[in-house]
Specification:
With 366 residues, the protein is α/β, with parallel strands linked by helices. It has eleven helices and seven strands. One of its GO terms (molecular function) is metal ion binding.
Length: 366
Amino acid sequence: MNVESVLRMNPGHEPNSYARNSTHQRNVLFKTMPIVKERVSALYRKAIFPKYFALADLGCASGPNSLLAISWIIEAISGLCSQTGRSLPEVLVFLNDLPGNDFKTVLSSLPSFYENLKEKNRVEINCYVSAMPGSFYGRLFPSRSLHFVHSSYSVHWLSQVPELPEQNKGSIYMASTSPSSVFQAYIKQFQKDFTNLLSSRAEEIVPGGEMVLILIGRSIPDPTSKDCCLLFWWLSRSLVEMADQGLVEAADIDSFNLPFYTPYKHEVRDVVEEEGSFTINHLETFVVNWDPFCHEDDESYVFDKLKSGRNVADCIRSVTEPILRSHFGEGLMMDDLFERHARLVGEHLSVEKTKHFNIAVSMTRK
């Protein structure tokens, strides 16, 4: 599988699109934006971008979340300049994702983005946004051209499916039933990819520049933990159900594995320290409900397993449908698959309110 050619979110604004089903990722942005703004402030104190400020968002996808994050960063810069009487720098923004990404949907919203910037900041901001297609596991930008790099919910996607020495039968990702060699292959691929990401950005970020990465991880070292395996376990079970009914070939399930890895926080730290180009400022962890619309602190909230299962299934479908189609073919009945997925997830959530374990790491280029 050529991951670069098939890994993308569902495009457009249709009911199953990523733009319509990325509330979970938006919730994560709200959780982590204080970290991002603090690192923007750190950059400002160093005064290394007096005339222009160049930032990149890695894995921008096709929905509104990327430009939302960019607007918050620019608002932070505007606020700091207003407080100190400095002139606003020109802002260069690069939206990055793989070439198959639906950049059109993102870029079509730029007029309203510019208008909102002007309205919120009450000042004209010279901001220039462009798309930068390509894999962030290699070079993308000129040397020492960036001041700030942001990425939310992208780095857990790998550059390729790990080379597995044994077949991962009955599962499309790491599972408690997987051979130990499967786990070893996944962590090896993550270490290689994450090292390449760091070394590439080290060439592109100015000394003293900042990078903030947010990704799904796991809370304990054991890679068989539910933090890691449970996310796609129910999708695997849905496919196996269909195989049992002759709707999918079992061999196709056994030969398919997702290019995805949820690291333990020390695995992230170890790679950063070994690669050596960045100093970690903060490495924080937090949890967010699987169901992005589940607000347990709201006294009026009433759990509905069917609705909750559908909320999760819609999110997973929006990020996996293209890669599933590339392997299983157009004959795979997606509506059927994700109806089953929603049912299984809803039943699970009625027993356990599962949460995503997330890692946020902020770094400074040495």
